[in-house]
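Quick question, first post here. What does this chain look like in 3D?
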Amino acid sequence: MSLRILLADDHAILRDGLAMLINGQTDMNVIAQAETGREAVRLAMETHPDIALLDVSMPDMGGSEATEKIVEHCPGVRVLALTRHSDQSYLRRLLQAGASGYVLKKSAADTLINAIRIVSQGGTYIEPGMAGPLLQRTFSQPVATRKAQGKELLSAREEEVLQAIAWGRSNKEIAADLSLSIKTVESYKAAAVEKLRLRTRADIVRYAVTRGWLEEDNAPE
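> Answer (accepted):
Ran it through. Tokens below.
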């Protein structure tokens, strides 16, 4: 079954080029296109795509606000941000809004296609070169020290739940995978983020990167 993709960008020529690239893949299909943030949210609610590929800077509603609304109203839709901005503040803002990936427009075409596939499988994709500075800003301790502390702080189940969250799994999906109640999953998540002092999804993703959880070999089955 082909991945159903919503494409949102206010530049028609770029949007058409991206649609041609995506539709050229045997496992992908652009089902709707938007040129504003509000239109992207509306179409996401109407069509329920697998992936919403959003430009960060759009008229009437920016990418971060559009991401928040899509994640809130369409929890099954994964958002991949596409932007010319390599500023860390944009990356942090999109991750905090609930985006599952961040790709620069200057990247090669195969990078975008790879990012779409990773995000569609529940993974998180961060543009190479941007993940390092993001981690350095958030964590001051060496990676080895953080890994050891995390291993000591979290129970096996708390780590399992937090890793699944980092991969974009919902509480309902995690509960089904682990044969737990949703309330129990929420309890494990609350305990884990409290122990690690993580406050947002962006914090969880950054921590997951330091632990190597977002590598392909660690993807949820």
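Confidence is low (pLDDT under 50) at residues 135-151.
The radius of gyration is 17 Å.
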